[in-house]
Write a structure and sequence with these properties.
Chain lengths: 106, 420
């Protein structure tokens, strides 16, 4: 298990114990964190599990795949450190990570 | 050469006994009669990727399972949206081009230019206006009389919304709906009977003149918040007027996208709650279920029956050999009833269904519906306002549908409203 904090756009924090080997999207959904829709169910076919990292954490995550880039590109509130949370696996390396949720999912 | 054999009319056939290879789900009248269900169920079970060859449409593969549809959506390098996304080839007398008919990379900047209009941050500003208009429409409904919900509520509301997004002359707003219905409802595009081809061509010529005039007006005025002004002033698109067919195509795409889909979901929701009265009770007892119900209405209705791709190279699709040039139809209407993905009786309307947002009605991948949040918001606000006023919107007669192999729509739904 890995400790992860999701921060809603209004500042509300949700600290969850997430299972390793699952995605960050699943960690949010299974722990009832609001603000992640995950319409496509984690197949990188929509952009409704959009999350934002700080620069330091973003750099540790590796680069998004072409598929992910294709879905992120048209997201209006995308930032330089945006990712799709269904494409990131929970592991010990993410212990203590803080993740900001956008105001809306599109 | 294809055999000149008159195809069987599906509406005369029994889906359980018809030879599998004779099943043809491209016939528009199937959807007019709402009798497609059994054919799709048979295909999902026995031949989920099903070939038809006809004189009218050529080689057409029907993809009927949720996961197979998702695969086709995602692989746009193989399954192209060009030159169009209908089963019928583009009519030679409609020269318009829009980004729904483009693959990446050409698709991307055109979509990016108009997306901000329907982005959630813009919608938050629109919600109050929509609520006020919905309230006015509902307050004006005749009590104790039977009336057509489609005209009085669904069309009325979506037409007003379109006029707002385009800042279109309000008194002429019915033209927007008419142009949209003409584009999708002619026989050569969808097997529809809303207008003849000649009437359609005349309407689109008028539409073209109207919007070209509006472009010039908006380009010469300070930037506004409407779609045309945004296109005319955005750096990426301000030269679009030099490609008038691209400009008009994208305008029409936005009109159609905001018209048929929301309109028919607004009607479908009333029908669904009347067919499943225990769900209406559930809603009355817990109005916080409205957002979830909105997603379920959109799945249950599936206002766009499906989208078609054209295959760019010989390929294999889950065991079937697809040839270059073959059409591949992603039947959302079938995938949304696929019990392998939609758990717990997919034919039932369940307003608090688990994973209710996981449906195909908006498509997936690069062409995923751009107006999904606007659609959801309009339907949500409409139901919030209905529940403040009426204990029941009662369906009092049979619905009348429209023939089409693109849009699953209604022309009439006779109802009476019962105040709280």
């Amino acid at each position: 298990m890995t400790k992860i904090t999701f921060i809603e756009a209004n500042g509300t924090e949700h600290e969850v114990e997430a299972r390793n080997e699952r995605s960050l999207m699943q960690a949010a959904v299974q722990n009832g964190v609001p603000g992640i829709d995950a319409d496509c169910g984690g197949q990188c076919m929509c952009a409704t599990c959009h999350v934002i990292f700080d620069d330091a954490w973003y750099a540790k995550l590796g680069t998004p795949s072409d598929d992910e880039e294709e879905m992120l590109a048209p997201t209006p509130d995308r930032t330089p450190t945006s990712r799709l949370s269904c494409q990131i696996q929970v592991s010990d390396a993410l212990e203590g990570i803080k993740i900001t949720l956008p105001e809306f999912q599109m | 050469m294809l055999d000149k054999v008159q195809p069987l009319r599906m509406i005369d056939q029994d889906p359980l006994t018809i030879p599998l290879d004779q099943i043809d789900v491209t016939q528009a009248e199937l959807y007019f009669h709402d009798t497609h269900w059994g054919f799709f169920e048979r295909l999902r079970n026995e031949d989920p990727i099903h070939l038809n060859v006809s004189e009218e449409y050529g080689r057409v593969w029907s993809v009927t399972k949720f996961d197979h549809i998702a695969y086709v959506e995602k692989n746009h390098e193989i399954f192209s949206s060009e030159p169009t996304i209908t089963i019928a080839d583009p009519p030679p007398d409609i020269p318009f081009q829009s980004f729904i008919q483009r693959d990446p990379p050409e698709h991307d900047p055109q979509r990016a230019a108009v997306q901000p209009v329907v982005a959630p941050m813009n919608l938050a500003k629109l919600e109050g206006l929509i609520r006020q208009r919905v309230g006015d429409i509902l307050d004006g409904l005749p009590i104790g009389e039977t009336f057509n919900w489609v005209d009085q509520v669904s069309i009325n509301l979506t037409t007003q919304m379109l006029a707002t997004l385009f800042d279109f002359p309000f008194e002429d707003r019915h033209k927007l709906t008419y142009w949209s219905d003409c584009t999708t409802g002619a026989p050569d595009v969808s097997g529809g009977d809303f207008v003849t081809i000649e009437e359609r061509n005349e309407a689109l010529a008028e539409c073209g003149e109207f919007f070209i005039r509006m472009w010039h007006e908006r380009a010469n005025a300070p930037p506004g918040n409407d779609l045309i002004s945004m296109l005319a002033h955005s750096e990426k698109t301000r030269d679009m007027i030099n490609k008038p067919m691209e400009y008009l195509g994208n305008i029409l795409l936005l009109i159609i996208g905001g018209n048929d889909t929301t309109r028919n979901s607004l009607t479908g929701g009333v029908l669904a709650l009347n067919q499943f009265p225990e769900e209406y009770d559930k809603l009355r007892n817990d109005l916080s279920l409205i957002p979830s119900m909105v997603s379920e209405i959109i799945r249950w209705q599936t206002p766009i029956l499906g989208m078609t791709r054209r295959t760019k190279v010989d390929t294999e699709l889950f065991g079937k050999q697809i040839k270059k040039g073959d059409k591949v139809v992603m039947w959302y209407i079938s995938g949304n009833r696929d019990g392998d993905v939609i758990k717990g009786d997919p034919d039932k309307f369940i307003i608090d269904r688990e994973s209710v947002r996981h449906h195909l009605s908006f498509g997936f991948g690069v062409h995923r519906c751009m107006g999904n949040r606007l659609a959801e918001m309009q339907i949500r606000v409409t139901w919030e306002e209905i529940m403040k006023r009426f204990s029941k919107v009662e369906v009092v007669g049979p619905e009348v549908r429209a023939p089409s192999n693109i849009i699953r729509g209604y022309r009439e739904l006779p109802v009476r409203v019962h105040p709280l």
